[in-house]
């Protein structure tokens, strides 16, 4: 394996803190979502994770589309990251990736979506650890 890039982000204060990338591109205040007793209008770890996974996933979908000669340039993915309570002090994430690929039938879209999930680095990193559904729409 050849290292191509390393992202560096410093987090302070947990869910009520900040995240800042070494290059300054990301500089955000974090708050718990309102649904978890926090404040609406701020970033949180689940939003950041959903954004990162979605953009990475679409890159993988682009590779699959190129391989199969299917135009996926207008595809979108809505990534739903659930924060779930397992026990009194135990939590787990869940995910649904809702994939829309215009211009192709649903069966073919699901096959492409599943293939992208197999190759996406975020999907690989979470496989077996995060309950995930891939849903072509």
TrEMBL record:
Biological source species: Mucilaginibacter arboris
Superkingdom, natural source: Bacteria
GO terms classed as biological process: response to oxidative stress
Protein name per Swiss-Prot or TrEMBL: Ohr family peroxiredoxin
Pfam families, per the entry: OsmC
Family statement drawn from the similarity comment of this UniProt entry: Belongs to the OsmC/Ohr family.
Family annotation (InterPro entries): KH_dom-like_a/b, OHR, OsmC/Ohr_fam, OsmC/Ohrsf
């Amino acid at each position: 394996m050849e290292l191509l890039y390393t992202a560096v982000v410093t987090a302070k204060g947990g869910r009520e803190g900040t995240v800042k990338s070494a290059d300054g591109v990301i500089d955000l205040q974090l708050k718990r979502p309102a649904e978890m007793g926090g404040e609406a209008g701020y970033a949180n770890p689940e939003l950041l994770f959903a954004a990162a996974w979605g953009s990475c996933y679409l890159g993988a979908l682009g590779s699959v589309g190129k391989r199969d000669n299917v135009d996926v340039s207008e595809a979108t993915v809505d990534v739903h990251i659930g924060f779930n309570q397992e026990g009194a002090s135990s939590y787990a994430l869940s995910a649904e990736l809702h994939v829309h690929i215009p211009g192709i039938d649903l069966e073919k879209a699901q096959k492409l979506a599943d293939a992208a999930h197999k190759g996406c680095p975020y999907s690989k990193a979470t496989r077996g650890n995060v309950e995930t559904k891939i849903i072509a729409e």
